[in-house]
Amino acid sequence: MIKTLNWALTAALTVAVVSGCSSQSGESPTPAGGSAAPADKASAAPIKEHTFTFLDYSNASWPYNKDWPVWKYIKEKTGVTLNVQVPPDAQLDNALNLTVASGNMPDMLYTQSKKTADKFGQQGALVNILDYMNDMPNLKKWMEQFPTDTQNAISSDGKMYVFPNHGIGETNRMNWMYREDVFKKNGLTAPTNWDELYTVLKTLKRAYPDSYPLSWRQGLIYLRNFAPAFGTGSDDGANDVYFDFDKKEWRYGPIEENFKKMITYLNKFYKEGLIPPDFLTIDTKQWQDLMSTDRSFVTADYISRVDFYNLPMRKQNSSYNLLFMPTPAGWPGGLQKNAYTQFLENGIMVTSTSKNIKDIMHYMDFFYMKEGLDLVSWGKPGETYSDDNGKKKFTSNYADVSDMRKKTGLSTDGTYTWFDYDAHLSLSSPELQDAYKQAVNYDSKQQPRPALTQQELEVVSTVGQTLQKTRDQALAKFITGQRDLGEWNTYVDELKKIGVDKVVGVYKSAYDRSQAAKK
Predict the structure, then answer these.
(1) Measured distance CA(204)–CA(313) in Å, rounded
(2) Residue 302's closest CA among 412, 212, 424?
């Protein structure tokens, strides 16, 4: 296992050390969309005609279309025709399980979960991509440029069963936003810490008695977004384990004193009617109703909500102005940091039964060069976009990103690995483009996501799930006042007895294993 990873990750570490001072993630600086060109551009392989079978995913918002121009563009550059199959019921996981179990697999498979790739790979159904690095010079250079994304694609056995991606994860970026027009009307400025946030929310509550100035959706899961500003956090909002880069250790956020500080604020907000009384059960529709009817003015969600609200709401209220809000620190002078959410696990896998493995590797290598990046992000120059000294622009007036996807197939599942998010931003409003430019200043460092063995996954799915359920019940009671915050230490002991150390130990072992592989 260690030998398999040695050459790729040693090179990756070297680049990480060199570029660490210029990027919080330890990766090369990137433009607003999160993409960057390699230092030098490798040449594309000579075009040779191939047809590969591919089990892909069809998104309901832009259903698969065999006539999308993107397939034509890909064939023109690579010589490859993809014979695409999609699940008839849109249930990709079910289709993958049935396909692999049948043994009659296509050349390539698409997954939305790295765990799925690791499972099938360790069963022998998938190819270890690292075995073919000599056939993929572009991917090799890309891995040196993006060591974190590379490491996060590695399985617990030291192999790589899914092609890593970078760039499209920006669609998952989450930040704070506020109603600038309402703040301005009431002589308020954006708060820089939670003390100021409390003062601002109180002022808004007095001005709008029927409002709940701060709101979000989906209950406690958004604590992951708030936690980094308090110097604590979680890996993905599910297991609450995070890596403390300063102390170089894995920790469990919900038992820490700084986490308690966050819960104490939320308890105060709840008691004073600054957040909705039913915040634990508010769904997306209810939250949208609050934000669009002058009953809530501060929120945290996907940054794209800037356009989601502004564009339709200004037809009713020309003053409506939801803008990016710098993250309020947990305390004066503290950290103004958001959780790092801008990643996706989606990717393409190659089946071990394919008779075209080497040809597929040559094909996939194209997408890790600048020419491939531009193709899958923007399409064809002169046809879908223009390029004026590096400033790209779509030539058609697409209503939005969804419209562009439906008409071209660009940035739809199975058409990309590395993606230039500036393509999506070019279809956004100036307010949203500005939000993306500001947002990078408030990023937390990207958390490592070490691959777990089946035994480790079992611990997380048993002990971890019990921890999460107990945590949720206790935190809900602390916030709503059903349980006194004076019982915090008792709550901490309850979680420790369930197995905090076991779950933290799982991540520590997996992380140490990945670090040993690097060395």
Answers:
(1) 20
(2) 424
Handedness of CA 273, 274, 280, 281 (dihedral sign): positive
Dist CA 203 CA 386 (whole Å)? 49
Cα–Cα nearest to 469, from 499, 490, 510, 449: 499
Alpha helices in 314-381 (DSSP H): 357-365, 370-378
CB count within 10 Å of CB 382 equals 9
Cα(410)–Cα(377) distance, integer angstroms: 6
- Residue 54's beta-bridge partner residues? 84, 108
The C-alpha angle with vertex 370 and arms to 364 and 372, in degrees rounded to 5, equals 40
Annotate 127-138 with three-state secondary structure.
CCHHHHHHHCHH
Rg (CA), the chain: 24
Tokens, residue 499: 């197995």
- Tell which residue, 209, 189, 212, has the closest CA to residue 200: 189
Q: How far apart are CA 271 and CA 469, in angstroms?
A: 24
Give φ, ψ of 418 to 5 degrees.
-95, 135
Q: What are phi and psi of 477, to 5 degrees?
A: -70, -35
Handedness of CA 353, 358, 363, 365 (dihedral sign): positive
Element (H, E) at 316: none
Whole-angstrom CA distances from 421 to 241, 340, 385, 486 are: 29, 16, 14, 47
Q: Are strands 80-85 and 249-252 parallel, antiparallel or unpaired?
A: unpaired
Average pLDDT by stretches of 10, the chain with 519 residues: 35 31 35 44 63 96 96 97 91 94 96 94 97 96 93 92 96 96 98 98 98 96 93 67 93 96 98 98 97 97 96 96 98 93 93 98 97 97 94 94 96 96 96 96 91 92 94 97 98 97 95 79
Euclidean distance between CA atoms 458 and 163, whole angstroms: 25
- Judge whether 179 and 321 are in contact, CB under 8 Å: yes
- Encoding tokens for residue 484? 């006194």
Close Cβ partners of 458 (under 8 Å, ≥ 6 residues apart): none
Are 364 and 348 in contact by the 8 Å Cβ rule? The answer is yes
Q: Does the global pTM surpass 0.90?
A: no
CB 436 within 8 A of CB 175: no
Neighbours of 446 (CB within 10 A): 18
Residue 366, Cα to own-chain centre: how many angstroms?
Answer: 24
Q: Is the dihedral of CA 92, 155, 30, 333 positive or negative?
A: positive
The residues with which 298 forms a beta bridge, in sequence order, are 178, 214
